[in-house]
Amino acid sequence: MKHRKRAFTLKPGLASLCLLASVVHAQDVADIPEAVRENVELLIQNGLDDNVGYEFVRDLTTEVGQRLAGSEAEERARIWSTQKLAELGFANIRTEPFKIPYWSRRVDKASIVSPAPQDMVISALGGSTSTPPGGVEAEVIRFESMGELRAASTDVVSDKIVFIDEKMTRTQDGSGYGMAVRKRRNCATTTSQKGGLACLIRSVGTQSRRFAHTGMMFRSAAVGDGPAAALSPPDAEQLTRLLENGPVKVRLEIEVETQPEAPSGNVIAEVVGRERPEEIVLIGCHLDSWDLGTGAVDDGAGCGIVVGAAHLIMSLDEAPRRTIRVVLYGAEEVGLLGGFAYAKRHADEMDQHILAAESDFGADKIWRFETRFGDRALPYARAIQRVLEPLGISPGHNLASGGPDISMLPRLGVPVVTPRQNGWDYFDLHHTPDDTFDKIDQGNLNQNIAAYAAFAYLAAEMDWDFRE
Q1: In terms of DSSP bridges, do strands 249-271 and 322-329 run parallel, antiparallel, or are they unpaired?
Q2: Does residue 125 sit in helix, strand or coil?
Q3: 121: how many CB neighbours lie within 10 A of its CB?
Q4: CA distance 141 to 163
Q5: CATH code: domain of residue 39
Q6: Residues 155, 271: one domain?
Q7: What is the Cα gyration radius of the chain?
Q8: What digits encode the pLDDT tens for the residues 147-202?
Q9: Which of 43, 53, 172, 446 is the most buried (most CB within 10 A)?
Q10: How many C-alpha atoms does 355 have within 13 Å on its Cβ side?
Q11: Residue 230 is part of which domain span?
């Protein structure tokens, strides 16, 4: 049912929207017509009161749960999503299938054999090979970084279990992840090349509780070059303390299931444009998750945000000129496979993709809005940024990546934006058993929904060319 435009009292800060275009010079900030500005105000207000996005995350994580790429659960998530999107009234709902190599854990356990026998909490990394039956048992050698392991001689590593004890830096924008994730991606390969038996890493995360963070390691097919697992932070500390006193022997046992091919797919739904339906404003998330938690923060929240935002736009009295396309990407966690599949399938349509954004950094508030536009389109960037300021969102730089599954689109000429979320606590939950629905704050989620609805609507309604 359509939401009728109605008289309402703006929440604090929103009243300033109607003055934004007049307080700066036209050459600095693009003008927004009054009727469009009124719709933006309505979208923001309704977004802050929205239940659709929150309920989408709640029901996805409850009725489907964890959604490992290529699994039966990911398939159920696609079916569930298409049904939910149809109930919400979206158009052109379909799944674009593709195949992926499949990996899942069956057994992952580790223990210190000597000098102080005790169990450790680990999580096998995605792409790990199985250990021989009964596991591997060997002396541990510790390195403080991936670079230190690379520099080590084969004689030092051979027949050892490698342990990389590198901590991750907590940052608001998540920039500490890029450095910390290198050991997860590359430890097994380098260990294998140097004759090591297996690799353990301190979890790529920022919390200090006794659970481990999984995640993908480098692989060329279903598995990579050796057994690898992440240690919980307290167990990494324990192992380090024991190593300070002398040699430590560890037993590691990993058993995995693999298939060369398994089904995945991208779920797509649209709010069809009233004048130029072939022109696309894409807002996306990823539907798959790791298998430890229920994928609420990573990335059920992102799907709730983009579905909620598009639904708000669909509920206006008339559709925007251009089409809003919602893409729920499959198989992101195992190598951005849904993103690459979408880019390949739609390669001939990239010039019709007007703008793209992906929500994949949790459920906390957006604090900065970054763009990647042509120089002549910067007045459009400033206009959008000014519209978002009452939501507590500051202007950002013009070097946005857009998000993981759309990171390949700028290379194909598509302008992107990054609504940058507060990530101080994101890597406390990322890829862990603690990634569950109770971590979602509806007020913070709704601020995201309001922001996505506002900028996506502007991009779809105005004649702006962000490539200029």
Answers
A1: antiparallel
A2: coil
A3: 19
A4: 6
A5: 3.40.630.10
A6: no
A7: 24
A8: 999 999 999 999 999 999 999 999 999 999 999 999 999 999 999 999 999 999 99
A9: 53
A10: 33
A11: 116-247
SS in 3 state form for 145-195?
CHHHHHHCCHHHHCCCEEEECCCCCCCCCCCHHHHHHHHHHHHHHHHHHCC
Q: How far is CA 59 from CA 1, 52, 81, 421, 436, in A?
A: 21, 10, 10, 23, 12
Query: 414: closest CA among 452, 458, 459?
Result: 459
Distance of CA 172 to the CA centre of its chain: 15
CATH code for the domain of 203: 3.50.30.30
What is the tally of structural domains in the chain?
Answer: 2
Q: Do 325 and 452 fall into the same domain?
A: yes
Integer Cα distance of 428 and 425 in angstroms: 5
Q: What is the pTM assigned to this prediction?
A: 0.93
Cβ-based burial of 26 (10 A; exposed 0-12, middle 13-18, buried ≥19): exposed
Q: Which residues 6+ apart lie within 8 Å of 155 measured at CB?
A: none
Q: Strand, coil or helix: what is 381?
A: helix
7 has pLDDT over 70: no
Q: Identity (one letter) of the amino acid at 260?
A: P
Q: What is the mean pLDDT of the chain?
A: 94
**159-173: buried (b, 16+ CB within 10 Å) or exposed (e) per residue?**
ebbbbbbbebebeeb
Looking at the structure, do residues 206 and 64 belong to the same domain, yes or no? Answer: no
Query: Phi/psi at 42 (nearest 5 deg)?
Result: -65, -45
